[in-house]
Amino acid sequence: MNEGGAAIRNKWDRIYRETGDAIPEPAPVLADNAHLLPAAGIALDFACGLGGNALFLAQQGLDTHAWDISPEAIRRLNAYARRLGVALRSEIRDVMECPPVEESFDVIVVSRFLERSLAPAISAALKPGGLLFYQTYTREKVAEVGPTNPAFLLDTNELLRLFSSLRLVFYREEGQIGDPARGARNQAFFVGRKT
Ligand SMILES: C[S@@+](CC[C@H](N)C(=O)[O-])C[C@H]1O[C@@H](n2cnc3c(N)ncnc32)[C@H](O)[C@@H]1O
Predict the structure, then answer these.
(1) How large a percentage of the chain has pLDDT more than 90?
(2) I need a labelling partner for 40 at 20 to 30 A (CA). Which of 3, 57, 65, 115 fits?
(3) Which class is domain 3-16+23-193?
(4) What is the dihedral of CA 38, 161, 104, 30, to 10 degrees?
């Protein structure tokens, strides 16, 4: 792992050591669109953190993989999986150095992680008919949440551009339109299918 990867790993290890012990929830883009999931297949929670998406995918009966650079995140995820009695394959993995191989997953979920250079590898890693569920923070926000560095925030409609090779299934991005106290704000939500 290079110096940048080690710094990221240490930062997230510190954060996860200080995070409470509640079992993490799946991201809304997955929970709200769970009816789209296949009955069986191989799923990946990409940069999974504590693995709310992975636990949910495994509970839906999918053969679930979960990758994160933080050993502390993976340790905690394994403990949650044991507590819930679900089986999943977790891995300490730097996705920049080891992106997924082509056509290897039926479902990929990415939440609150943005590394634009990986978008082609993520699309390529879907099997034909595979689904990508993606949500992360936007520059246009109504609250001070998510990263402060604008490089880690989505531009307007950016997920549509990054994953334009996929068939659009679902998209939501509300920006600052209308009543900011209502709706799904601060993030963009995308589901796409590889045809
Ligand atoms: C904001 S957290 C999101 C975690 C989880 N997806 C969620 O929605 O709760 C970002 C995650 O990306 C992971 N991460 C950052 N760079 C990574 C890399 N190069 N390879 C793998 N994971 C990485 C961090 O360890 C952290 O768990």
Answers:
(1) 98
(2) 115
(3) alpha beta
(4) -30
